[in-house]
Amino acid sequence: MIVYGIPNCNTVKKALDWLKLHNIEFEFHDFKKKGITAEKLTEWCNTFGWEAVLNRKGLTWKKLTKDEQIAIDNQDKAISYMINNTSAIKRPIIEKNNKAVLISFQEDSYAETLG
Fold first, then answer.
1. What is the model's pLDDT at position 21?
2. What's this model's pTM, rounded to 2 decimal places?
3. Which end of the chain is more exposed for a tag (fewer CB within 10 A), N or C?
4. Residue 41: count of CB within 10 angstroms of its CB
5. What protein family is recorded (predicted)?
C-alpha cells in the first residue's frame, strides 16, 4: 500500500496516525520531494474525477487570481497545474494493489476500505 501526500499536511498526519494505530503497513510517497507523474494524476482523476483530486481549499489554489482559477476548467489543465504545484493535489491518496482506493481522510471510509 502506498500513501501519497506531504508530511506537514494535517489531513495526511491524521491518515498516517490512523494507519499506524491499526497496524497497517504502508509506504509513504512525499510528492513534494519525489514528484508525481501525469500518468499517476490521470489514473487518480479517472478514479475520483479531476475536480476531487484538485485541492481548491488550500493556499496554493487561493493564491491564483480568479481568472487563473477559471482557466483550469478541464482534466488536462488541472493535471498540468498539479504537476507544477503538487500542494494543489488533494491528499492523502491511498493506493492498494496499485489501484487508488481512498482520497482525503474520513475514518469511516478508511475502516470500511482498509478494515
1. 97
2. 0.93
3. C
4. 24
5. Belongs to the ArsC family.
